[in-house]
Amino acid sequence: MTNKEKEMKTAQIYRADAAPQAPKSALRDLVQTLGLALLAFTLVIGVTGSASAGQAQDEAAVRSLGDNFVKAFVQKNAEVRASLFTENGTFVTPVGDFLQGHAAMVKDFGPEAQQAVNGNTQAAFSNWRIRFIKPDVAVADALLTLRNVNGPDGTVIPVIPVNFFYVAALHGNQWLIEDGRAHFAPAPANAMTKSAMSQK
Q1: Is pLDDT of 10 > 50?
Q2: CATH of the domain at 177
Q3: Do the domain assignments include residue 35?
Q4: Structure pTM?
Q5: Which residues make Cβ contacts (< 8 Å) with residue 143, sequence separation at least 6?
Q6: Residue 107 — very low, low, confident or very high, per pLDDT cuts 50/70/90?
Q7: Residue 47 and residue 51: Cα distance in Å, rounded?
Q8: Residues 94, 163 contacting (CB under 8 angstroms)
Q9: Does 68 fall in a domain?
Q10: Is residue 10 part of a domain?
């Protein structure tokens, strides 16, 4: 066998070995690519899941500001209501009074406002809409329904709907209200008002 024939056989052997290797190499590359893609997908899902969990916790904290506000209202606790705001926070009451800072709030939320509350008074939020402007700033909008509240003339008012809006911000690890607005909402229609409207 000449040297040239040996070289050709050797070349053919390597070529023959290379052919089976190519699919294995391509398969290995495909498996590695799929593995990396799966790992990246898992990491993205993990980050998204923890972000969603974090936002859900923040949303619950923002909502609890409103819930604690009305709970303190029913309990006639002006200090707790004011403490839910930043030190220099602002609030517009349903009758249009503008309050700024804890001292002004405690004074306005005090004995005169507390006369509206009796043993049967209830307050609850519904129709929540919370939107995050930034991760540490949220806007909350809800309907506050007050039940069995003493009116100015001493009569008990069965239902008072109030549109309640506030901007909350994260201060350290605590959410606080920066600015709040409460406005009397139109009273819900009842059988008497529907009857009167149908007669017109």
Answers
A1: no
A2: 3.10.450.50
A3: no
A4: 0.68
A5: 125, 126, 127, 161, 162, 163, 164, 185
A6: very high
A7: 6
A8: no
A9: yes
A10: no
